[in-house]
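User: Okay, second chain of the day. Same drill as before: sequence in, structure tokens out.
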Amino acid sequence: MFLKILFLCLFMLLGGGIFADENATYSESKNNVQFGIYPDLQVLDKNEKVYGIRCSFPIAENSTMIGLDFGGFSRNTKYFYGALFNLIGVYNDRNAAGVNATCIFHYTAWNFNGFSFAGVFNNVFHRITGLQASLIANNARQVSGMQFSLFNYCEDLNGVQLGLVNIYNNGTIPFSILVNFGNNVKSK
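Assistant: Same drill. Structure tokens below.
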């Protein structure tokens, strides 16, 4: 355990050089490593963008995260692009893309493109393009792809819902058990 902590500390101190652009001036340099305990107690300010790795133990918050994000809970006030693995969950205020895997919940306020898995609840407020999966419930306004959970809900569907209860609000058959298909996602 001690060696893991030592390695993490060394990586944080030296890791920035791995991602840094040698031609960038100090004011142009990108923030490559973020470690957060709480939004007001983290290496970089919560309004900074992170291009690289973010460790949230237990919580980290940034405006934009591009890269690998792991830990407890993460919040992005603008965008997330990359791979995320969190024990608790993630909250994206705007668009997100990539792979999200959390043990409890995933919430994206705008659009999500890619694969999103949440242990309990998975909510994409506007549109998900790809796979939305959880053990208990999925919710999205529009789905282009697949929802896989015990309970699935969407208003517009271009794809398939697999689950015990599937609700496709604007579909010809708005309720089904086990499987539901749709082909009517409207461009909004």
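The longest helix spans residues 2-14.

User: Thanks, on to the next one.
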